[in-house]
């Protein structure tokens, strides 16, 4: 089976088209590769800015959850995440929110402190999931 | 069975492989692009380094029996915020539209402005 771009719907981030040479998620065999989602921006309904590490972590993981569900999988299938964070001082608060999404058997993880290409971004998380068809 | 890909023009001198093939997946180490692999001349512009990174990925994937079209995930590490990335990357990778992680970081080698790594999936064969 060839690789497939995961079709996103609803409020999911749409990356295809235009000058963005990447997809939100790709299914390749039994694995799903999810792009690094950032947690910046604001709530489209209330206009409230995501300006805390907790809110941004939640946004990242909600987007990953949505992408995995669009691929027929779920957060339970996550095998490896990479967390990029703007400051070591945010690390514990990120973990508190992160733990809510992976209460048991959390995926393998790497976490690094880095900078981002857009202002206001505090965190970016990407994910690889394993979801065999059979 | 694992296959270690080190016959491409970008064989690392450090203790890692340019790529490792594991079943249908090929894991390509992040490639820098500060040296033209043909002429061995230094490349100083980030645009040109980006194209060279993709060329290094292309030759590494080819050595593994894959192509740029098979790329499913890409990690882009860049030293400075540079807004023209997508314009340069789009023609370089063609129709491949992988999942992507994109961050800024520092590198040990100060000539390096950008590094790109990827994972490819070769359909059909086990």
Topology, please?
The complex is a heterodimer of chains A (134) and B (126).
Chain A: E1 4-5, E2 25-28, E3 31-38, H1 53-70, E4 78-85, H2 91-101, E5 108-113, E6 123-130
Parallel strand pairs in A: 4-5
Antiparallel strand pairs in A: 1-2, 2-3, 3-6, 4-6
Helix pairs in contact in A: 1-2
Chain B: E1 2-5, E2 19-22, E3 25-32, H1 46-63, E4 71-78, H2 85-93, E5 99-104, E6 114-121
Helix pairs in contact in B: 1-2
Describe, in plain words, how this protein is organized in 3D:
The complex is a heterodimer of chains A (134) and B (126). Chain A is α+β, with helices and mostly antiparallel strands. Chain A is 22% helix and 27% strand. Chain A has two helices and six strands. Chain A has helices at 53-70, 91-101, and strands at residues 4-5, 25-28, 31-38, 78-85, 108-113, 123-130. In chain A, strands 1-2-3-6-4-5 form a six-stranded mixed β-sheet, with helices on one face. In chain A, strand 2 and strand 3 form a beta hairpin. By secondary structure, chain B is of the alpha+beta class. Chain B contains two helices and six strands; from the N terminus they run E-E-E-H-E-H-E-E. Chain B has helices at 46-63, 85-93; strands at residues 2-5, 19-22, 25-32, 71-78, 99-104, 114-121. In chain B, strands 1-2-3-6-4-5 form a six-stranded mixed β-sheet, with helices on one face. In chain B, strand 4, helix 2 and strand 5 form a beta-alpha-beta unit. In chain B, helix 1 runs parallel beside helix 2. Chain B is globular and about 40 Å long. Classes of the chains: A alpha+beta (134), B alpha+beta (126). Chain A binds chain B through residues 1-3, 5, 16, 19-26, 28-29, 31, 33-36, 82, 84, 112, 114-117, 124, 126, 128, and chain B through 24-25, 70, 72-75, 78, 81, 86-87, 89-90, 93, 96-105, 119, 121, 123-124.
Q: Key terms for this structure?
A:
heterodimer, A: alpha+beta, globular, B: 126 residues, alpha+beta, six-stranded mixed β-sheet
């Amino acid at each position: 089976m060839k690789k497939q771009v995961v079709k996103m719907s609803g409020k999911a981030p749409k990356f295809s088209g235009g000058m963005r040479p990447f997809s939100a998620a790709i299914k390749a065999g039994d694995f799903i590769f999810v792009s690094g989602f950032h947690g910046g921006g604001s709530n489209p309904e209330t206009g409230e800015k995501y300006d805390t590490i907790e809110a941004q972590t939640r946004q990242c993981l909600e987007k990953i959850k949505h992408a995995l569900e669009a691929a027929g999988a779920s957060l339970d299938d996550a095998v490896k995440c990479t967390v990029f964070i703007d400051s070591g001082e945010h690390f514990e608060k990120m973990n508190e929110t992160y733990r809510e999404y992976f209460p048991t058997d959390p995926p393998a993880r790497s976490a690094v402190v880095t900078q981002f290409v857009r202002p206001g971004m505090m965190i970016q998380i990407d994910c690889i999931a394993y979801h065999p068809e059979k | 069975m694992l296959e270690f890909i080190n016959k491409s023009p970008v064989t690392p001198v450090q203790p890692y492989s340019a790529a490792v093939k594991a079943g249908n997946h090929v894991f390509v180490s992040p490639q820098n692009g500060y040296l033209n692999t043909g002429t061995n001349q230094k490349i100083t512009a980030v645009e040109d380094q980006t194209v060279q990174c993709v060329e290094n990925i292309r030759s590494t994937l080819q050595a593994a029996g894959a192509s740029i079209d098979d790329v499913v995930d890409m990690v882009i590490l860049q030293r400075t915020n540079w807004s023209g990335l997508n314009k340069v990357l789009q023609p370089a990778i063609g129709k491949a539209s992988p999942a992507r992680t994109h961050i800024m970081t520092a590198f040990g080698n100060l000539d390096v402005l950008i590094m790109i790594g990827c994972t490819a999936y070769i359909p059909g064969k086990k």
